[in-house]
User: What shape does this take?
Amino acid sequence: MSIPKQEFELDPSIIYLNHASISPWPKRTKEAVRQFAEENCRVGATHYPRWQQKERELREQFKEVLNAPSSDDIALVKNTSEALSFVAYGLDWKTGDNIVTSSEEFPSNRIPWESLSTKGVELRQAAIHTDNPEQALFQHVDNHTRLITVSSVQYASGRRMNLEQIGEFCRKQSVLFCVDAIQSLGALQSDVQRWQADYVMADGHKWLLGPEGLGVFYSTPDARDRLSLSQYGWHMVENAGDYDNPAWEIAKSARRFECGSPNMLGIHALSASLSLLLEVGLESIEKRVLDNTHYLIEAILAAPDLTLLSPVYPAQRSGIVTFKPVNADTQALFQTLRRQNIICAHRGGGIRFSPHFYTQKEALERAMEAVRQFQALN
Ligand SMILES: Cc1ncc(COP(=O)(O)O)c(C=O)c1O
Assistant: This one.
């Protein structure tokens, strides 16, 4: 695969290993925003139908990225947390129901479910730090389990879950299946149909290389019919735009989750970012991402003074590699890397590296050399 290097304009003094937080934009995304701003200044919304066309294009792009059956299953939302809350506050809970998740979830996939305790709903958190994290989840399921919700990839450890296996289990047990895909979408291939997922959500600013504040919420027709709505407005009805007609009904499509005016600026930006990912190809991207992970894991395992916190087992690997020094202070290592413009994160008690497909091997070598130098001095 040839990397479209002209698309990445990162300051050469920076080594950016933080795509699991917020990613730099490709050049075409900057251009899309610049052009949209210019058009707004010069002619306002004169060409609004063209903007709506861009919105439709983005839904089609998400359909492809997720392998969704239809773009009608795609809602454009504010962020992952909003979509998770739509599910948490849309389902008709009964006292005594429970939800099963993992103990490694980012707060967005824990807090909405925990907040349901006021309705007598229990959140069960399975310890998944094992060779078989899926089985660990299944052990917590009983006759009162209504939903399993997991991240496709855990934000701190980078543990990748076998979503197909979980989806299969959920189907057999008549349990709903919800996937927070923010840490894999754009890095690893997705297939909501093979996962048999009912709800899948993600935001655009991590591996999808877009701006913050625009995310995707996939739902199957049956699964979305099970959600009561909490936000209403002109845009979420079947006849949106027919303003003089007092009669309305909720849109059949996932647009029902979009109550008002769309985030057109974000739509232009994210559509540009997705066009790059789709041009490069999601299969090639996944391969490059996992090659980078392989390089980092080998380098960490070869260093006796470093402990790998991410899984070694290939099926559980993702774009995230987290490690810590055996004896030295992790925060001190993090600060040292930051001073050297190696942009990464301090998560789960370790240093989290998250390079993307376009990250060069040389950048990884330099980052690992900086870690070795720190270790030599501490
Ligand atoms: C697994 C996971 N879910 C959700 C989020 C937050 O998503 P949002 O800001 O789109 O709600 C993050 C951010 O780091 C995350 O890692």
Observations:
- DSSP finds twelve helices and 13 strands in the chain.
- The radius of gyration is 22 Å.
- The CA atoms of residues 222 and 267 lie 27 Å apart.
